[in-house]
Description:
Elements: E1 2-8, H1 12-26, E2 30-32, E3 41-46, H2 51-73, E4 79-84, H3 85-97, E5 103-105, H4 113-118, E6 123-125, H5 142-147, E7 151-155, E8 157-158, H6 169-172, E9 177-178, H7 181-193, E10 198-202, E11 211-212, E12 218-219, H8 221-228, E13 236-240, H9 249-257, E14 264-266, H10 274-279, H11 286-299, E15 304-311, H12 318-331, E16 335-340, H13 358-382, E17 387-395, E18 401-405, E19 411-415, E20 424-432, E21 437-441, H14 450-453
Parallel strand pairs: 1-2, 1-3, 3-4, 4-5, 5-6, 7-10, 10-13, 14-15, 15-16, 19-21
Antiparallel strand pairs: 8-9, 11-12, 17-18, 17-20, 18-19, 20-21
Amino acid sequence: MKTVHIKSFGCQMNVYDGQRMADILSQQGYKETASPEGADLVLLNTCHIRDRAVQKVYTELGKLRELKIAQKANGQHTKIVVAGCVAQAEGAEIQRRQPAVDLVVGPQAYHRLPELLAQTGRVVDTDLPADDKFGYLPAPTRKAIAARGISAFVTVQEGCDKFCAFCVVPYTRGAEFSRPVAQIMAEIERLAAAGVQDVTLIGQNVNAYHGEGPDGTVWGLAQLMGRVAEVPGIGRIRYTTSHPRDMGDDLIAAHRDLPQLMPFLHLPVQAGSDRILAAMNRKHTAHEYRRLIDRVRLARPDIALSSDFIVGFPGESHADFENTIALVDEIGFASSYSFKYSPRPGTPAADLGEQVAPELMHERLLRLQERIEHHRQAFNHAMVGRTVDILLERAGRHAGQLAGKTPYLQAVQIETQAHRIGDTVRVVIERAGSNSLFGRLAELPAPANKELAA
């Protein structure tokens, strides 16, 4: 059997795409391997969202070139494939900079991998086809699903029509496309039958979902999640990533009405300054974002929030940055992602003047991350003493431990011999570490020596 090594960079959608490419290649006789050494095929599934992510790809390709030469000396012909968003944006440049690459395939064309790999010579396929690639993807085997664990990502929507000034997604993933409800449900039912219990619906702008329903009408994300909640075995539902402009009343109501929908919402704001938000073409103000959060919290008081932030967007002043800090402190996000602005070729922001000096961006990022971490730790420490449901997902760090996640995506370690992966257990949180929570089964008494709990 031939072997393939797949390495995915970036977002959850790339993780999903990497798994689907593995499913395609398994039908061609390829077995996944954890290492590129000795692999017949090495596939990099790439991310173009920031320049640093792109440079990681070229660094990796340099290493793979040396590996390919070494394996050829031993009589093995290794093919190198670059897939994903860097492939879509820089197909010709990849081939120019790295002749060792055999195939470049964009994220909308990977369903054609078998025919592309069969071609001779160096191949580039970065078309944005009109046909639905999902209709061509093979269903993963029950064995493959089980090997990936009890949590799964399911792409329900791709592309974006928002055209934020800093973002390459509309150019690398294309216009918004929503999969039909029946197709999504068939995939989720297969996952559930193989033991998946925790499903995250993903898309570049997932709450803009508008897929064809089984009744022929257009369904939104809230209606879709209501149907997912009916699948036996699916106990936890999440979705990411969302845009504030698409957070409608029905979606807010779903957080109130669907017990399976976890009380955690990732809702990127990007900045706290109206002037910068307008320059970013975000189409919402900081005030509108705050009032939206108020409505969500009114519907689901125990909800935890996460966000994305960009510092150093062109023209960002000290006052603009202070507005972002104020928003972070006011809302108190449970977690967030934050990055320095990275000019992406072809986006409107790349041509703007008033670029912020790198050292100032770095200084602002450190300060923002300090505030984000402060609120994350505060949220984690507020969990101590609470009893929560934990879905056990894997073995823990030490013998006799199992690890799982709270409804808020916090990692939890517990000591147990009585439960197995896949069980949902009631856990008393006893301690908050820097990145994990530690607890005991609720049916067990607290240790007499309190120091043992720590």
